Amino acid sequence: MTRPPLGIIMNGVSGRMGYRQHLVRSILAIRDQGGVLLPDGTRVQVEPLLVGRSGSKLAEIADRHGVEHWTTDLDAALGDPRWEVYADFLVTSARVPALRRAIAAGKAVYTEKPTAESVEDALDLARAARAAGVQNGVVHDKLFLPGLRKLRRVLDSGALGRVLSVRGEFGYWVFEGDWQSAQRPSWNYRAEDGGGIVVDMFPHWSYVLERLFGRVESVSARAVTHIPERVDEQGHRYRATADDAVYGVFDLAGGITAQINSSWAVRVDRDELVEFQVDGTEGSAVAGLFGCRVQHRSTTPKPVWNPDLPDAHDYRADWQTVPDNEVFENGFKVQWEQFIRDVVSGTPHPYDLVSGARGVALAEAGIRSDREGRRVDLPDRRLPGPAPDGAAGDDATAAVVPSGARVTA
Asked: What is the pTM of this model?
C-alpha cells in the first residue's frame, strides 16, 4: 500500500548545500528509490517544490532532474495545502523570517544550521513551532556519518570504559581564490554576510559532543583570521572579516574535556578531513568521516620517551579497525528519511529547533570567549512551559548562554 506523496517545499536549492546534499543526494535519491519505507510496511513518496529567487536557475535544475514543480513565490507555496513540509537551505540571515512564515502557515519545518543569528531568535523559532504544534527538525548530518556511527557503537559497548577526553581535528586548506579557485563561497569569509568558521562549525560540535559524550557546560575559544585577503567569484579582492580558524576547549558534563581545532587554513596530514580521538580508561578510539579504529588497554604498547634515538615502533599497527557490519548511506539522506517518518507518524523529531538553539548558543559563547579572553559557561536552560505529549525535547535541551554576541559578529 502506498500513501499520497509528501509535498516538500525546498527553499535555496540553487546553493551548494541545498542542491548537492538535500536535493540530489537526499530527496531525489529518496524519490528514485520509491519513497520512504514506514514502520507499518507502507511507503510514502516525496514530491519536491523548488523555491528560489531566480526562475531561470530553478527551471534549469527542475529540467535537469525531472522535477515538475518550481516557483519564485514562497508565499503562494506556503499557502498551498498540498505542500506539507518547508525545508530551508538559505543563508543564515534570511532563515529566521522564512521559517517564521512557514511555521505560521502550519508547515512542518526542516532547516540547515545555524537556525538563527542569535540565541533569542533561535529559541523564538522553537517556541513558535511548539505553540503551533508543527513538526520541526534541524540538520544533524555528522551524527549519521559512518565513522561516528561506528564510534557510537564502540561507546555503547563500553569498550572504552570511562571516557576521559576527546580531541578533534577538522579542516583543510581553502584556496584564496587567486591562483586557484576557492572551494567555499566568498561569503563564508565575510562576517557581515554571516560567515565565519565559529558560526559554521560550533553548531556541529554542539550536537556531536552532546549526543556522543555529554552536554557542553563551558567553552574557551580562540578565533583567528589567518588569511586576511581573498578573491571572490568575480575575481575581485576583498578583505576577510570573518574567522577562518578556531581553537576550542569544551568542558562536558561528567568531567570530560574536549579539544577541537577547526580551520580552513590547515593542510591535511591525517587519514580524513575530520578525526576525533577518544581516550578512556579501558581503551581509545579514533573516528573520522568513514573509518573508526580502536585500541584496548590490553594491546596498548608501553612507549618510552628517548629523544636521542629514533622510535621504530609502528604505533598505528597496534590499532584494530572497526568493521562496517552494515550498509552506510549518505548521512543527509538518512536523517531526511527519519524526519519524513516522524512527520508522517506524528512522532517528535529528536534533532529539533531546541537542539538547533543549543548550537547557536555554543557559537555565541565561542565568540564571547574569544572577545573577552575567558572561559564562558553555558547554563542548563530549558524552554519554558510544558512540552507537548511525547515531545523529545527538554530532557536533553537547551544549554543556552545569555545574549551578548551575535553569531554573525
From this structure: 0.90
| Distance, CA of 394 to CA of 68 (rounded, Å) | 40
Task: State the cell numbers at 46.
Answer: 516525496
Q: Render 284-306 in DSSP notation, one character per residue.
A: EEEE-SS-EEEEEGGG-------
**Residue 401 predicted with pLDDT over 80:** no
The 3-state secondary structure of 356-396 reads HHHHHHHHHHHHHHHHHCCCEECCECCCCCCCCCCCCCHHH
Residue 162 CB-density burial (10 A; 0-12 exposed, 13-18 middle, 19+ buried): exposed
CA atoms within 13 A on the CB side of 229: 5
136-185 confidence digits (pLDDT tens): 999 999 999 999 999 999 999 999 999 999 999 999 999 999 999 999 99
Integer CA distances (angstroms), 6 to 17, 85, 259, 285, in order: 22, 8, 41, 40
